[in-house]
Amino acid sequence: MPLTTLHDPTPEARRSGASGADHGEASLEFPDNFLLIDLCGEHDRNLALIEEALGLQILRRGNRLVLMGEAASRSRGADLLAALYQRLEAGRSLEAGDIDRELRMGAGARPISGDQTDLFGLAGDQRIEIKTRRKLVEPRTEAQKAYVKSLFDHELAFGIGPAGTGKTYLAVAVGVSMFLGGHVDRIILSRPAVEAGERLGFLPGDMKEKVDPYMQPLYDALNDFLPAKQVQKMIEEKVIEIAPLAFMRGRTLAKAFVVLDEAQNATTMQMKMFLTRLGEGSRMVITGDRTQVDLPRGMPSGLVDAERILKGIGKISFNYFTARDVVRHPLVAAIIEAYDTDSVTG
Fold first, then answer.
1. Which of 21, 22, 40 is nearest to 30 (CA)?
2. Taking the complete model, does pTM exceed 0.85, yes or no?
3. Which of 151, 231, 268, 295 is packed most tightly, with the most Cβ within 10 A?
């Protein structure tokens, strides 16, 4: 654990501080220089992220980091750096996403790992970690955390909100985790191939080759959590299925983790068909963005209808995201907010 020393405000800060803000220093000493290098990041890029987020200046002096800025920012920065250093001490990696999660969620939550059955009924202050073969996945916002908990606690859950909020990514991570833990026997991922329409017949190749481009985001998520060769083998053995929504008709999906992505592009009849596929021992997740419906004009979205029709069923979880939960490039959140504002004022 780093040691923290607080210093009085500098004379310059006292003279120029018309608002009375405390622009002093906080010094943190780190016992392991190798871990300190990882904490700072290549060319101190991790420190730059923290400086920008908290309005601090962070100087590196030997095995110490000096935080300069207002008292509240210094305190938060010291807590953040201590939490990130502890993460490194535990032998875990440190990426930009981990810093973003700590900035959004705070450093006080106790991490929970191990067998994913431990995640059922978690207390609100516990940190959730989803174990997969290739990486450890952690929710980065409170909405993401509530969503992941609902995926473990409910047989049927909806994730509704804008692009970039991790709805599908987290659902696939939970599916892989539950498969590895023996809670389900297979993973089924589906999307409506609305964009293809009648043009599928004009594309070269068999049906799989025509449809795969629309399924690519699901392949990308799987490859983040499982080795590529294992994904390919599981697909060949039909332990993992990735298929258009229309292919789900007539099936009963037992002991499976099932994800319907881009559900705003399912018709009401397709949504009803899909929801009634739920079988014994299965979990089903429906994700979508109500603002990006690609159905023909005048055709209602099955996602919107399902939300209205099923809202009163207590065992079904509805989870909502906003632009504040976007975990892609910061500009994505700004773009979403700008479009939302325009739709209201326009």
1. 40
2. no
3. 151
- Mean pLDDT for all residues in the chain: 82
Residue 318, beta-bridge partner list: 158
- Asked if residues 152 and 116 have their Cβ atoms less than 8 Å apart, the reply is yes
CA dihedral for 85, 90, 96, 100, sign (positive or negative): negative
Cα atoms in the Cβ-side hemisphere of radius 13 Å centred on 186: 17
Closest by Cα among 346, 204, 210, 187 to 282 = 187
The answer to which of 86-90, 113-117, 157-161 has the lowest mean pLDDT is 113-117
| Whole-number Å distance between alpha carbons of 214 and 247 | 14
d(CA 97, CA 33): 23
Strands 25-29 and 64-68: antiparallel
Say what the pLDDT of residue 271 is: 95
CA–CA distance, 273 with 240 (Å, rounded to integer) = 21
- Taking the C-alpha atoms of residue 318 and residue 311, their distance in angstroms, rounded to an integer, is 8
Element (H, E) at 7: strand 3-7
Q: For 103-125, how does the pLDDT look when each residue is reduced to its tens digit (9 = 90+)?
A: 877 654 444 443 444 444 444 45
